[in-house]
Design goal:
Elements lengths: L1 H7 L2 H5 L7 H19 L1 H6 L1 H6 L1 H25 L1 H10 L1 H13 L5 H25 L8 H30 L4 H23 L7 H26 L4 H7 L2 H14 L5 H18 L3 H7 L8 H14 L1
Helix pairs in contact: 1-12, 1-14, 3-6, 3-11, 3-12, 6-7, 6-10, 6-11, 7-9, 7-10, 8-10, 8-13, 9-15, 10-11, 10-13, 11-12
Length: 317
């Protein structure tokens, strides 16, 4: 989950390298092409578990629709309300949306550990947002109040759809569908829904090599590879924990803005990053119960995915 969040945190910096490409095109190429690639790679697993996916078609379609809406709302939110506000609303409120979904639909109780971590993460993200917003303000008033409010509304839509497709993928995995098949089906159908948007808005992506390179990177690295990692993570943690761990994304984006883009981050922003790191430490520090649960994977059907992940780690070592 943390590795996926780190990859997602690079999207803002990458998007600055293609200023002529609009937010709808960025969202459509990233999640659309990335989703279709996931479905292509997972095609054998999808075919093998087609009957189980058909039994859960309502969950698959809900997840796919959320996958299609999320990037359009997310990148449009940042375009209208600014990167700082759009990111903090979209990513910062997603854990609350996930917790609400799990509480209402699954009856899951929120633990003190999650509540503490979410509080630290939301506070840190808010401080980071305030720091970036203060740095970005130039006093020209070019962003209208109506545009800002619309951007915030779209950010809430992005948070809700992010929480929904995370919940849908986790629900499929808990119904004995391997993560590769579950993510491939949800993101593949979502990618198909995004194709018309990509055709209508994607002309700037092929207008120059830099634009095409940015689009290719967005689809292959943060979206394809990132969501493969995300699917593996959903085998072991609920959606509310997954979306809370994704609070690392705006922190990574801020650090990259300083190191790559050349922006300056005030002390408030660094305090926010420290709180986000504290949030992640609270969530990821193993407890005796967690150590015992790791010995027995929650989803026996996902042993192929876990074996692949273990192989990758061993090769990396």
């Amino acid at each position: 989950m943390l590795a996926a969040s780190m990859l997602w945190g690079t999207t803002g910096t990458a998007a600055t390298l293609a200023p002529d490409v609009g937010p709808l095109a960025i969202g459509a190429i990233a999640m659309g092409l990335g989703g279709l690639l996931q479905a292509l790679v997972a095609a054998p697993q999808i075919a093998r578990h087609a009957s189980r996916l058909r039994d859960q078609r309502g969950t698959v379609l809900l997840g796919a629709a959320s996958v299609a809406v999320y990037p359009l709302a997310f990148y449009s939110s940042m375009h209208l309300a600014g990167v700082a506000v759009g990111t903090v609303v979209s990513i910062g409120t997603a854990p609350l949306a996930s917790a609400l979904i799990e509480r209402v639909v699954d009856g899951r109780r929120l633990t003190r550990r999650w509540t503490l971590a979410a509080t630290l993460g939301l506070l840190g993200t808010a401080l980071l947002c305030a720091a970036e917003a203060a740095h970005a303000t130039d006093g020209t008033g070019r962003t209208s109040m109506a545009g800002t409010l619309l951007g915030i509304g779209l950010g809430l839509v992005a948070a809700a759809t992010y929480a929904l497709y995370s919940w849908a993928a986790h629900r499929l995995i808990t119904h004995q569908i391997p993560s590769r098949a579950a993510m491939g089906a949800v993101f593949g159908f979502g990618g198909l829904l995004l194709l018309p948007v990509l055709i209508a808005t994607g002309a700037p992506l092929v207008a120059s090599w830099p634009n095409a390179a940015v689009g290719t990177y967005m689809a292959l690295v943060p979206m394809f590879a990132g969501y493969v990692l995300f699917g593996w993570g959903l085998v072991h943690v609920p959606a509310s924990t997954a979306t809370t761990l994704s609070l690392l994304e705006p922190a990574i984006a801020a650090v990259l803005a300083v190191l790559v883009v050349g922006e300056r981050l005030p002390a408030t922003g660094w305090m926010g990053i420290a709180l986000v790191i504290a949030c992640l430490a609270v969530l990821t520090t193993p407890t005796p119960t967690h150590r015992r649960s790791r010995e027995q994977p929650r989803n026996p059907a996902d042993r192929d995915s876990e074996a692949a992940a273990t192989s990758i780690v061993r090769h990396a070592d």
